[in-house]
Amino acid sequence: MLKIQFPRTQKGIYFWFLAFSSFLMLFSLATLLGAAGELSSSSSDLKNLKVVMPSLEEYVNSQAIDYRLNNTTLNTRRLKPSDIPKLADDAVVTVSVDDAVNRAFQYFAEFENKRSGPILTVTTPNVESVEPGSPADIAGVKPGDLILFVSSIKIESAMGYYQALNEKLSSETSLKLLRNKQNNISLAMKNPNRTSINGSNSGIKFAAPPEAVYVTELDSKRMADQYRREMLPAISIDWRSEAANNLMQSAKRLNLIAKAVIDPTGSSPSKIQTKDLLSWQHKKVLERIDVYFSQRRKIENTNAVYLTGMGDAVVGFVCSLIIFIIAAALFWYQRRIAGNKS
Fold first, then answer.
1. Are 113 and 215 in contact (CB under 8 A)?
2. Confidence band (pLDDT; 50, 70, 90) for 234?
3. Cβ–Cβ contacts within 10 Å for residue 20, how many?
4. Each residue of 272-322: pLDDT tens digit?
5. Which candidate, 56, 32, 36, places its Cα nearest to that of 44?
6. Bridge partners of 186?
7. Are 233 and 88 in contact (CB under 8 A)?
8. DSSP state, 175?
9. Which are the contacts of 212, defined by CB distance < 8 A and separation ≥ 6?
């Protein structure tokens, strides 16, 4: 009987074809796993990407140093990281945006009054100027007048005047003045719109350094409203709550700074004001949101490249798998026929 046998070289071709397809499949599998790993890593980077809110320590490090050319000027210094108290973990509680803003400016007001208090306490209540149309102007208060009494409270300093007005808020307040160092005058300040008279709207300005301010509760609310109108809308809505809470925490830490550090009458007071910190914090929040979006775009572009590579790797793996299956089938079929013929 005639027997047909495949040549040995033919058998070798099937074997090497199978070996090559196996290598091709393993290589495409490795490429697929590598592409999947890169895509997973990039996706993880995108998931972990976030806006890091600024801290008081960063603000301190960003300040320039004051240089004094002579010894005639008060020896001030900048705030130091060591001056800033930490907040306990249980003291950092996230609240709503409105609550955070309100509390932040309450802390700022307390800080400003603590910072300015030593100056205003030693500032005599001599009227430096009167705002036109203010309750004091309407009542007849003039520059040069010395405030003696607010209602029945004796006034000995500018701080005493502010505190007396805020002790009993009213739309009408009586004053006793000393004019021209000899005439005692009694006046009544009235607010035409019937709102309470306080240190910021009475219209009286004392001869105190411009950096010395007294912030009333109404001032605090006004500044909070101004922040909501002018600054908060500039922050992306996704980060407004975080930014407001960050501001609140910074304000709270600022207010906890030891009074000795910021006392302007001390030997080496720290130079810091709320307006400077507020402006810096807002600028940094906007910068970091911009950085976030810039990094996000880069990662998303990288993800698109990895996703394309992933698609190519899947196609390559499927093709190599098909080739491997064909090679394996041919090799098995060749072995089966060779076995039957033998």
1. yes
2. very high
3. 13
4. 889 889 999 999 999 999 999 998 888 888 888 888 888 888 888 888 888
5. 36
6. 176
7. no
8. E
9. 116, 119, 120, 123, 264
Distance CA 301, CA 329 (A): 42
Q: Which residue's structure tokens are 């080496």?
A: 268
Give this prediction's pTM: 0.73
Question: What do you get for the CA distance between the two ends of the chain, in Å?
Answer: 13
Q: Where is average pLDDT lowest: 16-30, 133-147, 274-288? A: 16-30
**Token pair 């907040």: residue:** 87
- Read off the DSSP letter of residue 64: P
Name the H helices within 66-134. 97-122
Of 59, 107, 49, 55, whose CA–CA distance to 243 is shortest? 55
- Residue 322 tokens, joined: 């098909």
Gyration radius of the chain's alpha carbons = 38
Categorize the per-residue pLDDT at 16 as very low, low, confident or very high, splitting at 50, 70 and 90. Answer: confident
Token digits for 245?
């809470």
Of 42, 4, 6, 93, nearest in space to 300 by CA: 42
Q: Tokens at residue 7, please? A: 């040549």
Which residues are bridge partners to 270 per DSSP? 77
Rounded Cα distance, 245 and 101, in Å:
8
Token duo for residue 300: 């998303």
Strands 172-179 and 146-150 turn out to be antiparallel
pLDDT over 60 at 178, yes or no:
yes
Return the axis-axis angle of helices 8-48 and 274-341, rounded to nearest 10°: 160
